[in-house]
Amino acid sequence: MRYIRDILAEKHALARPMISFEFFSPKTDEGDRTLLEKTIPTLAAFKPDFCSVTYGAGGTTQDKTLMITDRIQRQHNIVAMSHLTCVGATQEHIRGVLDQAHGHGIKNILALRGDPPPGEGFKREPGGFEFAKELVEFIREHSGFSVGVAGFPEGHIDCMEGKHVDWQRVKMKVDAGADFVITQLFFDNAFYFEFRDYMADKLGVHVPIIPGILPILSASQIIKFTKLCGAHMPAELLARLEKFGADDEATAAYGVEYATRQCESLLKSGAPGLHFYTLNKSKSTKRILQNLKLR
Length: 295
Prior knowledge:
Elements: H1 4-14, E1 18-23, H2 29-44, E2 50-53, H3 62-76, E3 80-85, H4 91-103, E4 108-112, H5 132-141, E5 146-151, H6 163-175, E6 180-185, H7 189-201, E7 209-213, H8 219-229, H9 235-244, H10 248-268, E8 273-277, H11 283-292
Parallel strand pairs: 1-2, 1-8, 2-3, 3-4, 4-5, 5-6, 6-7, 7-8
Helix pairs in contact: 2-3, 5-6, 9-10, 10-11
């Protein structure tokens, strides 16, 4: 399996956009079957450059995350990246996870501070890490991994000092050894362009910054997500969602239209690719890629 840093370099040289998908570890056996037997095979047909698999709150899905990542690589011959977080983890624990990943042939890790369990604030585990930068440094001590990190075009919701301070922390993660950045979801491309340009022009960060795209499936769901992460919703988008109300079918169709326009603008303005937060669904992401005539 290849390193994502090499895939990104190749795509840049060929002036072609990178396409990737993110999945999460289901909580039920039925969810596992749907993901592994339907969603992933459907999206694998679009020949993504890589897929990523999330890590549950507090690292609760560690074994399943590695299993799904391994299955993507072995069954579909697609590069897969495992998420890894600082939450509830000691250095010894992280070392063990990295050893397991290495044993599965996993060469790419997304290093995150991570979200604590619901209702709890983030607490550094004794013998663990407080910041993603520290996790990046630790992973770098283990040869054989390409490391990605998260970036926040509107600033991290927990950073009270403002987005420019948060962006300095992204630079620290890159300086610690991160090869690329994947952004949190956003619905106004101006935030992405401001973030990308500030990182390059003001902070001298030139690793690829990949925009994260979330196709809207329902109004209630997306409002919940944006409240959790602090993402702004443009007035046009809010008005349309209010119009559709509880009509999830109409909302999802508009979500495809909106995300298609987002992606067209991002690619036209030099984004290195698109990272789709699939929510373990294939229909909307498939339609967006068909609209863009990608793959």
